[in-house]
Amino acid sequence: MAVVATNLRKGQAIRVEGDMGVVLNVEHRTPGKGNALIMATVRSFQSGKTKDIRFASGDKVDLVNTDRQKLEFSYSDPSGFHFMDPNTYETISIPEDLLQEAKDLLTENMPVDILFIEGKPVSAELPPSVELKVTQAPEGLKGDTANNPQKSVTLETGKVIQAPLFVKEGDVIKIDSRTLKYMGRA
Predict the structure, then answer these.
(1) Who contacts 166 (Cβ-Cβ below 8 Å, separation ≥6)?
(2) Which of 34, 59, 80, 141 could make an S-S bridge to 5, C-beta 3.0–4.6 Å?
(3) Same-domain status, 34 and 76
(4) How far is CA 37 from each of CA 24, 52, 53, 55, rounded to the nearest angstrom?
């Protein structure tokens, strides 16, 4: 399906220059002379790189058929990460490279938004914050606390992050899933 470039919206998946990507930003520009331009920032699904593309206001842009599903993480093995559709109980496997850093925060039954393009999974998005149990935390050093000292703690998934000195083994903490930073106790 094709749309006129002036109807492009943030979040739409498009096919442009032989590549597919998601529109991150759309800006309409009207120079003093000439026709209006549409500047779109597009992130490629294949390379993950972002680029700015200029369209004339009358250009046609191909939209790509997308589907976003909320699936629950079940388990991982050498063949990939396996998710269950809570409605159909069907298992869907996703390759490790689509999850990137998110794979270090997955726990059983965690809801994950998976974006499918033309029936193929292309990206996975965790909730904005996740709660995980601390399995290892060295004792905090007493002394200089004026500069917000941090220590390395190990989470139940095996991921090591920086957390404040007062965090101890057994605590459940909240982590920002995009930055992998400590947000607070759960």
Answers:
(1) 140
(2) 59
(3) no
(4) 17, 12, 10, 6
Within the chain, residue ranges assigned H as helices are 96-99
So what's the pLDDT on residue 146?
A: 63
d(C-alpha 33, C-alpha 113), whole Å? 44
Percentage of residues of the chain with pLDDT beyond 90: 28
Give the DSSP H or E segment for 182. Answer: strand 181-185
What range does the domain containing 146 cover?
A: 129-185
pLDDT in tens, 129-184: 999 999 998 886 666 566 778 889 999 989 999 998 888 999 999 999 888 899 99
Q: How many structural domains comprise the chain?
A: 3
**Whether residues 13 and 35 fall in one domain:** yes
Considering the domain architecture, whether residues 56 and 14 belong to the same structural domain is answered as yes
- Neighbouring CB atoms inside 10 A of 89's CB total 7
